[in-house]
Design goal:
24 strands, 4 domains, Immunoglobulin-like, phosphoprotein, Membrane-associated phosphatidylinositol transfer protein 3, disordered C terminus, phosphatidylinositol binding, Rossmann fold, membrane, alpha/beta, 7-stranded parallel sheet
């Protein structure tokens, strides 16, 4: 999987799944070292451990199917239960609580537990290294059991490990023992060399542990497999290593050699169990914030920021050049007598830069980064990327008692889509593929995690301060013979306050949706109105099908998505007016109106018959995010969504013009139409008969001969449809293959209007920015389980010769 320097045989690469025939379906084995949080008593509930692993697996599957199809069904998760090393320490500290005698006192369990002391007491226990040995044994057993199972036969892929709060500490020590064992087998070095001994700090007080086996302590074993990446979730490893460095000052943390290629320390900043690692390896990193984890709802493929350690050094020259002389000052080579930095090897590394003649500070930064990356710094760093990654944490958690946070945070890691997306990006190495390569390399998944380009206009950076993207790409319906024109508009602010003018935008399409591969078609420059209009050349025209569209701003990596639907002539469709047929309450600002009972089932009935679903609304396209989120929340089936372009005086007239052009230019046939009484005139002008027009609401004598009123609700109407369609055959298979079935899924930002009923969900990083209204989400229509949802969203459309009026924005920007 690792580009340029693979650790595993090439057959295991996910980057070439479509071009390789592998015997084993599994390409990545993820061993979850589950030890629970520091407040878990005894060994923890085995059912809870298995439930957490199942939750992680389901979230990974959903995220993979939505954005990482190349990794779907190729990652296997196996649970490895860790010994409860913190249970005894927790019991001891609880008994020392000044209020332990009074169980009825609230203060007996709140604010009097020194949480930071629990992992320190745990690693000092006599049987701690026995627990490490037990973990190694269980991990090896899980690995060998996997190899003999049906999913692991012929497995040649990579093995990754993931440790939670307690399991992460045990996992790290197991990796250090594995490194020490493997190095001793490859080379005969002196046992007294602490530089090459990764376990020196783990063998403190061997003679003070009469209850343990000395042979087990000195040699607890090693992993029978090579570990690629190690992911730590809310782990207090930094605190543990700091204590060990205090006990053994001669053994530096940078001398430890965990047997893996990269360590990722993921944590919530408010998690009392978590701690940083980078300042232990290089003290200057305490001045740098942890790397901010990209929010999945806004940047499912990453936000474009580079995680390489060299890039972080170059981005903060004021930190790493603070001890440098001025560029014009004379420089002399450093010597042991003159080096007085007092930071271990840090001073020598900085002095090595000043020994090179430099005329500009920029050159100094480049040489310093190269020196640090290629010499001592790279050898002491645990990988080539940043170690500390901060997850989004809601401010509301500051009001919770500290003793309640470990349980809440520990549960949130397993259900976090931010963690799942980050994990998948590392596994399939999509952050190593440049955006330019997607144009000529179809087998490489496109990722926005390439270096951002500078804005073409200097004023753009100033204009976009403190505003978020409100981009939209129009849903497009076209024919194979006609033009296939894509239209997008790039605005910032919830009310389109700022227009992106004269900047580059990448245009990408998923020509093979099942593969999940984005193909770069072209790069356009936005007009003065922020628009991008691109007509697919004849040589690249797409055949009948549904194709996702993505337009991405090169300056800040924000993007918008939609769908291009290429239909055959005579395709039949059913039209639904969103506000008229679905909403049971009035909501001018789109703040989550109630849904009419049974509406979702009626739409799904028409979709199952093979009809194209068209959603239409007179709302301006600036409200598209709320509308699509609302449809997603209630599991409405996938369809094409069209809005009005901005605020219009007569939305009914715009609906009529749009639908008429759609019929004339794309040669579709409207079989049925749903809406309110306001929509009757629209459907009559399209030539629909009264039997084809369904109006929701109370009957009116004025319109009783122009439509059919659904006065008894959608449930009765659905029964009549099912009875009437029993003798009617479904659409042919050739037509049904065109349509994208399922519901609006993850990429439609379904929880934008999320009801915060469960605190665990509040903790989850799936939450977007706070909505503008405190109203709770209405009851979800009981029509389709979430497991059946098809990831994706809809979009607005527009173009010359193809018809669409607005866009769909699925989680790429806040409202």
């Amino acid at each position: 999987y690792r580009l340029g320097r693979p650790r595993c045989v090439p057959q295991s690469s996910i980057d070439g799944l479509e071009d390789m025939e592998t015997q084993c379906k599994t390409h990545v084995l993820l061993l979850v070292m589950h030890g629970g949080n520091i407040l878990d008593t005894a060994g923890g509930d085995p059912g809870t451990k298995a439930g957490d692993a199942t939750t992680l697996s389901s979230v990974l599957e959903k995220v993979a199917r939505a954005h990482f199809q190349a990794a779907a069904e190729h990652v296997m998760i196996k649970l490895v239960a860790c010994p409860a090393v913190c249970a005894e320490a927790f019991s001891l500290v609880s008994n020392l609580n000044p209020y332990s005698y009074d169980e009825s006192c609230v203060s007996s369990s709140v604010d009097h537990l020194p949480l930071a002391a629990l992992p320190l007491l745990a690693i000092a226990a006599p049987h701690y290294q026995d627990a490490v040995a037990t973990l190694i044994t269980r991990a090896n057993q899980a690995y060998h059991s996997f190899l003999v199972s049906q999913d692991g036969q012929g497995f040649t892929g990579q093995v990754c490990v993931m440790g939670d709060c307690v399991g992460g500490v045990l996992c790290f020590d197991a990796l250090c023992f594995s490194s020490s064992s493997s190095s001793s087998q490859r080379q005969h070095s002196s046992p007294s060399s602490s530089r090459n001994n990764s376990t020196e700090s783990l063998k403190v007080g061997v003679d003070l542990r009469p209850g343990s086996s000395s042979s087990l302590i000195l040699n607890p074993g090693r992993f029978d497999f090579e570990v690629s990446e190690c992911f730590l979730l809310g782990c207090p490893l930094g605190l543990v290593l700091a204590m060990r460095r205090t006990v053994l000052p001669a053994v530096q943390v940078s001398q430890l050699r965990p047997a893996c290629t990269q360590i990722f320390n993921l944590f919530y900043p408010s998690d009392p169990s978590a701690s940083r690692l980078e300042p232990l390896l290089e003290p200057l990193f305490h001045k740098l914030p942890p790397f901010p984890m990209p929010r999945y709802q806004r940047y499912p493929l990453g936000d474009g920021r580079c995680t390489l350690i060299a890039d972080s050094i170059q981005s903060h020259p004021e930190v790493f050049l603070e001890a440098e002389p001025s560029p014009g000052a004379p420089t002399v080579p450093p010597s042991p007598e003159t080096d007085s930095s007092g930071r271990g090897g840090g001073g020598g590394r900085r002095a090595s830069v000043t020994s090179v003649d430099s005329e500009t500070s920029f050159c100094s930064v480049g040489r310093m980064s190269s020196t640090i990356t290629n010499s001592e710094f790279s050898s002491s760093w645990w990988g080539s990327k940043r170690l500390d990654y901060a997850l989004y944490c809601p401010d509301v958690l500051t009001s919770f008692p500290t003793v309640a946070l470990p349980h809440l945070f520990h549960a949130s890691y397993w259900e976090s889509t931010d963690v799942a997306a980050f994990l998948l990006r590392q596994l399939i190495r999509c952050d190593s593929v440049k955006a330019q390569e997607a144009d000529s390399k179809d087998s490489a998944p496109f990722s926005p995690s390439s270096p951002r380009e500078k804005w073409l206009r200097r004023r753009t950076h100033v204009k976009l301060r403190n505003v978020t993207g409100n981009h939209r790409v129009n849903d497009i319906i076209a024919t194979e013979e006609g033009p296939q024109t894509l239209v997008g508009r790039f605005m910032y602010g919830p009310l389109d306050m700022v227009t992106l003018t004269g900047e580059k935008v990448d245009i990408l399409l998923m020509t093979q949706p099942q593969s999940g591969r984005w193909v770069h078609f072209d790069t356009e420059v936005t007009t003065s109105s922020g628009r991008v209009v691109y007509t697919i050349p004849k040589s690249k025209k797409l055949a009948t099908g549904v194709y996702p569209i993505k337009m991405m701003v090169k300056g800040d990596q924000t993007s918008a998505e939609a769908y291009l639907t290429v239909l055959p002539r005579g395709m039949e469709c059913v039209v639904f007016s969103i506000d008229g047929s679905f909403a049971a309450s009035v909501s001018i600002m789109g703040s989550d109106p109630k849904v009419r009972p049974g509406a979702v089932d009626v739409v799904r009935h028409w979709q199952d018959l093979g009809y194209l679903i068209i959603y239409i609304t007179g709302r301006p396209d600036m409200q598209k995010q709320r509308v699509v989120s609302w449809l997603s929340q209630h599991n409405f089936p996938q369809g094409m969504i069209f809005f009005s372009e901005g605020l219009v005086h007569d939305p009914l007239r715009q609906k009529t013009i749009f639908l008429r052009n759609l019929v004339q230019e794309c040669h579709i046939k409207i079989n049925s139409a749903y809406g309110s009484m306001k929509d009757i005139s629209v459907y009559n002008m399209l030539g629909l008969s009264p039997s084809q027009i369904y109006i929701v609401g109370r009957p009116s004598k004025k319109y009783q001969n122009q439509c059919q009123f659904l006065s008894d609700g959608y449930a009765v109407h659905l029964s009549s449809l099912q009875f009437g369609h029993r003798t009617r055959p479904k659409k042919t298979s050739s037509v049904r293959m065109v349509l994208r079935k399922g519901s609006f899924g993850l990429s439609a930002k379904p929880d934008f209007l999320c009801k915060r009923t469960h605190l665990r969900r509040t903790m989850s990083v799936q939450h977007p920015d706070p909505p503008c209204t405190p109203n709770p989400k209405p009851e979800r229509a009981q029509s389709q389980p979430e497991s059946d949802q098809d990831p994706g969203g809809g979009g607005g459309g527009g173009g010359h010769g193809v018809w669409g009026r607005a866009s769909i924005h699925r989680g790429d920007a806040t409202p």
